[in-house]
Prior knowledge:
- The protein is mainly α and 300 residues long.
- The chain contains 15 helices and 2 strands.
- It starts with a helix and ends in a 7-residue tail after the last helix.
- It comes from Streptomyces pseudovenezuelae.
- This is Lipoprotein.
Amino acid sequence: MIAALASLALTGCSAHTGEAHRTAPAAQAKAATADKALTDAQELRIADAEQRLIKRCLNRQGFTYWEAERPSLEESRTLGYVADDVAWARKYGYGSRIEAKEDRARLANPNLVYRKGLSKERRKAYDDALDGGIEAPEIAAELPNGATIRRQMGGCVAEAEKRLYGDPVVWFRANKIASNLQPLYVPQVMRDKKFVAALHVWSTCMQRAGHPYKDPGAARQAAKEQALRSPSDKTFAAERQLAVADATCARTASLRAIGKERETHYVNALRDRYGQALDTSRRIEHEAYVRAAGIVGPRA
C-alpha cells in the first residue's frame, strides 16, 4: 500500500499552466509561499531545462545529445493515489497508453544508439563527459528510516544540477529526506478516521457502479494488470470506464480534499525533526523553477 501511494499523492496532480515572470531567482523564490508545492508544469519545466543544459554541455565537448521527448503537459500528468479529474479519466483512463508510449520512447532513445556507435575510447570520453563515469565523486544522504542513499555525481549532469539547484549536495540531502517521509506518515493517514470514512464512501459508490474495489490503488492495479495482459481497444475502453467511476466516486466522497488535509496534518507533526529539510527542499525547488524558466519554455 505504501509503495502505491508514492508521495502519498492523495491529491493527485492537476496540470497548471500558469508560469512565473522572469525576474531574479531570489526575488521570485521569495514571492512563492514556502508551503506551496510546485505544479506539474513547473516540475516538468525544471526537468526539461536540465535536459537542455546537459545537451549544451555535451555539445561544447564535441558530442551529440538528444533531449528527452517532451510529451504534452496533459499527457505528463502525475497521477496520485486519489485522482478525481473525470474528464482526464474519460480520455486517458489510468494512463496505460501513455506509459506504453513512454516505454517505446525509452527503448528508442537515440542517445543509446549514438553511444553504442562510438569507439571504445570515445565511449569512455562520452561517459566521463555525461556524468563523470565510474570515477565520479560520490555524495550521500541519510534517509529518515536510517538507511543511506548514495549517488555518483559529475560531468554535465552535475553541471546542469548545479546551475539549477545551486549547491547539488545540499539539494540532494534535503530532497531525499523530504521525499522519503512516506513510511512515517502514510500509515497514519490510512488509519485516520476521517480518511477511512471517506474511503468507505468511495468504495460504496464504486460497488454501486459495479466495481467492488476496496480502495483506488486496488482499482488502478487491476486496470494496469489487465492492460498488460491484453492491450486491446476493448481493454482500454474498460480501463477508461473504471477510471471514470473511480474519479466520480472520489469526488462524491471528497476523498482528495480529505486526504490532502490529513496528509498535511501528519506531515506537519514531523516538522520538529524534519522541518529544515522540508523547507530547504521546497525553497530550492522554487529557485530551480525560476532558473529553468529562463532556459526553456513551458510545455504545450
